[in-house]
Every structure is written in structure tokens, then in C-alpha cells.
Amino acid sequence: MDSVGEILSRKGRNVYTISPEATVVEAVQSMCARHVGALLVSIDGAPSGIISERDVMTRVILARRDPATTPVAGVMTCEVVCVEPSTTTRQAMAVMTERRCRHLPVVQDGRVVGMISIGDLVHWASREQEAEIKMLTEYVQGVYS
Fold it and tell me: What CATH number was assigned to the domain covering residues 4-140?
């Protein structure tokens, strides 16, 4: 079965972080520059939260807070759900569905070694389905006789 570690080995292990004292504007600038939808909020290398596009929309924009003066710590999601590299892709999808989150830090031996998104999992599932369809089509066409 496919694992989160396999996804990371393919997509890369970059983890973009931001300080809890940074402003929401700084977080948005960082997300836009890196083309990601979330940043890990980190204190001395340890995850203390996560800030996502959804957090910005619901806790800043809808709450009519000033993103230029609002600190990330005031609007981040504090309860960070993590998975391990050995977690299967199906288990990761189930966690995201159950916890209603779109980004999961990947932790190994207490260290964050990557981050996956729902987009990564959908892309992976799509590739798996394409391979399976190709194999079944070849079987039906008699390629494997």
C-alpha cells in the first residue's frame, strides 16, 4: 500500500514555517511566494500550530481583523494533526476527512520531515487510478495473454 513517505520522496520534503509573532500579511506573502496553502507555525523548530488560507479567510477577513497588525498566533490552528511517513495514503485521507483539515505535517522521530496536502493525495490517487485503468485495459485487450 502507498505511504505518505512515498509521496514526500516524489514531491520533496520542504516545510515552510513562520513565527507566531509574524503578521498575517507576512504569512500570506510567504504562502503566495511559495505557492502553498499553509505554513507550519514554529517555535525553535517545534510545531506550535499551522496557518492556512482557510484560517486567514475565517479568522481574519470574516472577523474584520487587520491582517497587517494581527499576529499569526492569534488566528492559527493550534491543534496540529500529524502523520508519520509510514501512514498509508488512505489513512491520511481519512484523517483529513475526519479532522476537516487540508494539510498534514509529517513527523518522524519527533521531527517534522515534510508536509502533505489534500492536493498531493488527490494527485497520488489519480496517478494510481490511471495505472490501474491502463493495466485493466491492456488485460481486456489481450496484451497479457
Answer: 3.10.580.10
